Amino acid sequence: MNGTLHVTGTSDTNQAADLAERLLAGDKAAVARVISWAENADARFAALLARVYGRVGHGWRTGVTGPPGAGKSTLVNEVTKSLRARSRTVGILAVDPSSPFSGGALLGDRIRMEERTLDKGVYIRSMASRGSHGGLSRATVDACDVIDAAGYDEVIVETVGVGQAEYDIVSAADTVLVVLCPGAGDGVQAMKAGVLEVADVLAVNKAEMPGADRMLVDLEEAMHIRQAGRSKWITPVVACSAKSGDGIEDVVAAIERHREHLKNSGLAAVRREKRLEQVHRVLNERLGEHLWGRGGYGERARALLDSGRSPYDVVEELFAALLAQAARGRNGAT
Amino acid sequence: MNGTLHVTGTSDTNQAADLAERLLAGDKAAVARVISWAENADARFAALLARVYGRVGHGWRTGVTGPPGAGKSTLVNEVTKSLRARSRTVGILAVDPSSPFSGGALLGDRIRMEERTLDKGVYIRSMASRGSHGGLSRATVDACDVIDAAGYDEVIVETVGVGQAEYDIVSAADTVLVVLCPGAGDGVQAMKAGVLEVADVLAVNKAEMPGADRMLVDLEEAMHIRQAGRSKWITPVVACSAKSGDGIEDVVAAIERHREHLKNSGLAAVRREKRLEQVHRVLNERLGEHLWGRGGYGERARALLDSGRSPYDVVEELFAALLAQAARGRNGAT
Lengths: 334, 334
Prior knowledge:
Chain A is of the alpha/beta class. Chain A has 14 helices and 7 strands. Chain A has a 7-stranded parallel beta sheet, sandwiched between helices. The longest helix of chain A has 26 residues, at 267-292. At the A-B interface, α3, α8, α9, α12 and α13 of A face α3, α8, α9, α12 and α13 of B.
């Protein structure tokens, strides 16, 4: 697929213009290519995004998370079917932050979704970490932007677990859907506390299983307690069964209600704050790379550590040196 | 407990000297107090650490991770008993990165360990994230240093899961022990790939359960494949049952073998690289806080985003401004 894009003799600028045009036209090969750039931190990505950024913002981003075994993939599959029945196009990112060092996502669950890939209105992509956790959440936001620019009405980001890495990934979404199921024991218990804080919609999947009713009541109660004195949105708790299809429409309706809520309460401001967080993270990464690369701070740190200084003393010394340098710059400029 | 440390009329320096002295003497109240400083990012922590840093390095740090339900806490309890039988003192940090926004660790498992807290040679402390993931892994390393300085022979850091946050936490340890168990299904499967990369010792707990033998063989094979062309250490796969006590001695022996291996192959260099990573992370955090706080970069970023610039364009503009300032500083200095 990549081969067709490497047109020899075409200048980089022409190639980028061509790729941007194809991306905006919704060409799946172009989408895949640009997401690969984002994943590999390819220098060409930023320029390409700038070309299409004016078209970013149309798609609705739903982040889906929950413990392993809750049935997220099956639910995403069913939600996608429902959205397709409403003629909405859907881009799906399956993110696996649990194996940052293997480089390979575990895509067993995804195989069930392959039926959807024959649908022109659905784009599916799996993303695995190629390095740092920061890299994966950065690339995931970038991939959302790419799918959005390509004109998809819905962008669904699915990830396993509700730890910090997963939170960073789903929190960039407009709506966070957390999927739980009864009887998963330790895993679910351990995750509930964090889950209550991040969910805009809570789905209790496998609602036909024993314990589901109790779980629904408990979660609803927790959501009402949490709501006290906070935003006007009370996270709905929706029973469903991705297997039988029961309740899927309720999940989709809950997401739509959250969308309407955000649109009425200042979506632009919420999205701007998320962009600011993104800029914050990327700038910090960029700065870190610069210091430890060209800046030579690694060598200085090593020498200081070897002299027996404590890590915080080393940090303060490097930080003071940097500030002194920047301050001299400020004075020099005035 | 804290009240006794707030001696009115004592100068801060005297108080710090006193606290450092008590910490070095192994006083558990002092240990708890200083770890709280680390957790709360209290400005006094760095100075205190500098006072005792010369005594850091004696304790052996073992990081324990694995999926929820694998029986980590019970295993840590049994390993602790075994170490105590060898007259080694043990400090245990139970870290819960799974609920970064609730502020409360889930310590159900810890209750089982309370019997150990009556033992003077054991110190147990739970740590939960008070904010960012970075904050928790920083505080955990700090807490290891504190326990180490207090003279404990063994420092065990236990955390749930094997995602990036957990990796950051356990990777600061000398030995990483990963605990799995048969039959945990999805959770274990999803974590295996990452686990294979980080484990120095693999324990298959609940070895009396069906599927344990097969799991042992599979993991041993995977460890030998992984080893090809890498370090000389082949991660041992140890069967055990924390419940019955079977195999606990084998787990302890495997950790000891890994310790001997590291000591013979350059422990000081390995530890220095980990310190460098710590300095790297802390300096980046410090820098980020400075820029977005006093530096006023937040306002600049907001204005640029409002003008419709893409996030990467905004980062480049801020980065260029910063470099220009630093460069002027460098020129001004020469």
